[in-house]
Specification:
Elements lengths: L2 H10 L14 E3 L2 E4 L4 E4 H9 L3 H4 L8 E2 L5 E4 L4 E4 L9 E3 L2 H5 L6 E2 L7 E3 L5 E3 H9 L2 H5 L6 E4 L2 E6 L2 E5 L9 E3 L2 H8 L23 E7 L3 E2 L3 E11 L9 E7 L5 E7 L5 E8 L7 E10 L2 E11 L2
Parallel strand pairs: 16-22
Antiparallel strand pairs: 1-2, 2-3, 4-5, 5-6, 6-7, 8-11, 9-10, 11-12, 12-13, 13-14, 15-17, 17-20, 18-19, 18-21, 21-22
Length: 316
């Protein structure tokens, strides 16, 4: 069976392509919406445009910057799979437009798959066909308004079957469950790097509305001051608690349980400071040489919790 026939069979399987994306955890207040998943706000006309899509998380993804001045001189905001541009000279309902990322990034010359099946393909005015699951996804999720016209046939790029559109790139992921095999490439993130934008724009920030809590999950890392010690001495344990966007979590509570080599345990408690750092200091005596002392840590913050472990060895 040649590659074109194999691809056609695969694409015929998932004709219902409502991809199962997780629910957006964004928190909104008035004309601003904060996305704690990436630590960025969308506001004003950009937010109205974002919400105008039937499934904005699917077609745009999360915001990865704030509204910024791009290196190409435009006022823009980057999302995982798109870039919004502000055109202040246009009428109000046309002021936000999508950058033609597919057109800007497409390079022909890759191995192509030629498919001509009138019953499963649509021929566009530029003589490019969209077929099978790609066509169903295209029609279901906004068509030309959202993605523009196709500008390439099916091609192989980096071991993936893809098709470029003016504003997007579709990928075929055969390893995914049926109904989730058409995926949009994160062209927004790629184009951000291609234009050599300032990497500082990617750093998470706090919500513009101070009443919004931007922490969805916490993670902890722990380390000790001395990896090896004498059988009697003093040890310091440091724990760093961060949010899902790697921002310091202030006022998280923690408990460290020390498991000594002689079998007994001791509990110590800490609260993180503004840098997300908690610290405990403890003494020990007459521990067995060569044994490992483990330290189990649990940190909590507003109903969220996380655990981590560290250790040190009694050496001499």
């Amino acid at each position: 069976m040649n590659v074109t026939r194999r691809f056609a069979i695969l694409l015929l399987l998932p004709m219902i392509l409502l991809a199962s994306w997780g629910p957006v955890q964004a928190q909104s207040s008035g004309d601003v919406q904060f996305f704690p998943e990436t630590g960025h706000n969308v506001k004003g006309e950009f937010l109205h445009f974002y919400k105008s899509a039937s499934n904005p998380l699917l077609v745009f993804g999360y915001p990865i910057t704030e509204q910024i001045q791009s290196t190409d001189g435009k006022t823009v905001q980057y999302f995982q799979r798109a870039r919004f541009e502000l055109h202040a000279n246009l009428p109000e309902n046309q002021r936000i437009q999508l950058t033609a990322l597919g057109q800007a990034m497409y390079k022909s010359g890759s191995q192509q798959l030629k498919i001509d099946n009138p019953s499963a393909c649509q021929l566009f005015s530029n003589e490019v066909r969209v077929c099978f699951a790609f066509l169903e996804f295209y029609k279901t999720n906004g068509g030309a308004t959202q993605f523009g016209n196709p500008i390439s046939p099916f091609e192989f790029h980096e071991n993936l079957i893809v098709q470029y559109f003016e504003k997007a790139r579709f990928e075929w992921r055969a390893d995914r469950p049926e109904g989730q095999r058409v995926v949009l490439t994160d062209l927004g993130r790629i184009y951000f790097d291609q234009l050599a934008e300032d990497q500082a724009f990617l750093k998470p920030i706090n919500p513009l509305n101070a009443t919004i809590d931007n922490i969805l999950a916490i993670n902890a890392r722990a380390f000790i001051s001395k990896a090896v010690t004498t059988s009697s001495g003093q040890q310091t344990v440091y724990t760093i608690v961060e949010s899902q966007t790697h921002q310091a979590v202030f006022n998280a509570n923690g408990k460290a349980t020390i498991h000594f080599s002689d079998g007994h345990t001791e509990d110590y408690f800490f609260t993180t400071n503004g840098s997300g750092l908690g610290m405990i200091v403890f003494n020990f005596v007459n521990q067995t040489q060569g044994e490992l002392v483990t330290i189990d840590i649990i940190a909590t913050y507003q109903g969220l919790s996380t655990t981590t472990t560290t250790s040190f060895r009694i050496w001499f």
